[in-house]
Write a structure and sequence with these properties.
GO molecular function (chain B): ABC-type transporter activity; ATP binding; ATP hydrolysis activity
Strand content of chain B: 25-35%
Number of helices of chain B: 8
Largest sheet of chain A: 2 strands, antiparallel
Strand order of the largest sheet of chain B: 6-7-8-3-9-10
Strand content of chain A: under 5%
Number of strands of chain B: 19
CATH superfamily of the largest domain in chain B: P-loop containing nucleotide triphosphate hydrolases
Helix content of chain A: over 70%
Family (chain B): Belongs to the ABC transporter superfamily.
CATH architecture of chain A: Orthogonal Bundle
CATH class of chain A: Mainly Alpha
CATH superfamily of chain A: MetI-like
Helix content of chain B: 10-25%
CATH topology of chain A: MetI-like fold
Order of helices and strands of chain B: EEEHEEEHHHEHEHEEHHEEEEEEEEE
Structural class of chain A: mainly alpha
Shape of chain B: elongated
Distance between the termini of chain A: 48 Å
Strand order of the largest sheet of chain A: 1-2
Number of domains of chain A: 1
GO biological process, one term (chain B): carbohydrate transport
Shape of chain A: globular
Number of domains of chain B: 2
Organism (chain B): Rhizobium straminoryzae
Oligomer: heterodimer
Subcellular location (chain B): Cell inner membrane
Radius of gyration of chain B: 24 Å
Largest interface: A-B, 22 and 26 residues
Chain lengths: 311, 350
Amino acid sequence: MASVSIDNPIDETTERRSKPARLAPNYWPFVMPALLVVSAVIVFPWLFTLWMSVNSWTLGQPRTFIGFANYLRLAQDMRFWESLWHTTTYTVLSVVLPLFFGTLAALVFDAKFPLRGFLRGIFVMPMMATPVAVALVWTMMFHPQLGVLNYLLSLVGIGPQEWIYNQTAVIPSLVLVETWQWTPLVMLIVLGGLAAVPREPYESAEIDGATAWQKFRYLTVPMIAPFLMIAVIIRSIDAIKSFDIIYAMTQGGPGTASETINIYLYNTAFAYYDIGYGSAMAVVFFLIIIALSFVLLMVRARANWSDMEER
Amino acid sequence: MATVNIQNIQKNYGAVKVIHGIDIDIADGEFVALVGPSGCGKSTLLRMIAGLEEVTGGAIRIGPREVSHLPARDRDIAMVFQNYALYPHMTVADNMGFALKLKKADPAEIRTKVQRAAGILGLEKLLDRYPRQLSGGQRQRVAMGRAIVRDPQVFLFDEPLSNLDAKLRVQMRGEIKTMHQRIGTTTIYVTHDQVEAMTMADKIVVLHDGHIEQIGAPLELYDRPSNLFVAGFIGSPAMNFIDGRIEEGAFRTKKGLILPLPQGVAAAGGRDLVYGVRPEHIRAATHGIEGRATLVEGTGSEIYAKLDARGEEIACLFRERLDVRFGDTVSIDIDPARIHLFDKQTGLRL
């Protein structure tokens, strides 16, 4: 027969509790590399930007502390407000259009038809191209005299357009490129969502008397809503900080017609070398992105419905 | 409420026949259970009645209307699914009122009907919750509530209790029965659990390989099963089947065991038979057939034992407390009035 005895259980408990405290100093060698890297590449640049934004500093000239003067100047800068409007228009259109066409494409590719896999492969190809290469190809296509787009329009009796060379048409034209490139991403996300949607409620709805449209409206759309929200978040953040395509195609022109905050910020800091003012702009832009992400994440949480999402 | 008539219904998947011409008449307000083992075609039959599966041949009538080729939404039926099939993004109230919303019913009327159904099922406090916030039993009640709100002509249940634990299953069984007694809507209930069918249904249809084996009231199926399949399927624990022949007024098994017979069955002599006796119709006796216990399971209220009597395995269910242990010799007595005889070749009752 074996016997069991407990010797001084209080001591054992004390020892167990004190272990983490004694081990604590040993954690630092493991944590330090990560802390150093994060501090160097994330924390320091941000602190430095904040510091620069409260200084008047044009490259090559002496720096002076001016407090919130750069921010006050920003509030009165019409060009900044104009660039904010351009950014908003560009972002909203670059989210809504790929979302609409991506969802439509996902519904098409969710059905079974011959060569579906092959066609889906072709459909996602724009997403894989480099933005600058895309910009160059589309710049050629947009050319009012030599571009293929005007040639195609002429075939259906529509006169030549100025595309990115026209102040009114430039943002819609850039959005067209953005939509062409990023609709496949939305399609892939929504297609994943459609695959995850349970099929049983559709039979319930059939018995409850739903038509095909009502099933789409009341079941499919709300059930893929969490996935649509993921697409909206990814696309919004991507579109609001879009730089490469715009810079490569128009550099913010004609005039300042396609100048988004990013382009204006870049021009201010690296063309006019007004580092302090550019930094203030970067800080405000950062706060806008944070606020937008916060709102989108809240909306996404409201769109959740599945057990999986709740965890 | 309505009658349901199923005439010569057939279902093929390509060359595979799964339902071979079935006829069932269901009276107005009747509770009918379709039972059978997995793959017997009971769920397919129910889905054909619901309009979720195409009918290959035959006709289905709900009331005076033939509905065989009508879409599900035009059949005026409600269905409760095994996995509940609730709308995951809608609250309990929205789930229950969805069918009325589709019909563009007045919101006040929807609210009233949802409240009434919630009252019947005890869901009043859960109306604002989402399905993911409910337990299995609550979800099943919501699925039933959704059916009640529709006030359909026929309720269809497709193994609604299979996903619940044993205790909840018993509770929900009672609730479904109570609901039927209260509302009185014609109900077709599919289950593979014969206990559910026995306890709930007015009439049971036993299906096997796409054929009807027997239709009847629960006790009729229990007392007078028409063939070996029904005899083995209805009743728990299952009936004992022992092969043998009638010789000199007694049933002699192939291994030489003599079993009692009721009077007047000697005419069945001279051919291979199957002797059927339910475990609960065997009593412990001071003198009788002797067997060695090879399995003993006590639940407190009863003892289930398997005996080896001259090489024949006989399952017994004793209601009285017996001190039986593995290897003990037990004497048993079979009531000849409760035995069943079947033709070995055809499987039919004599």
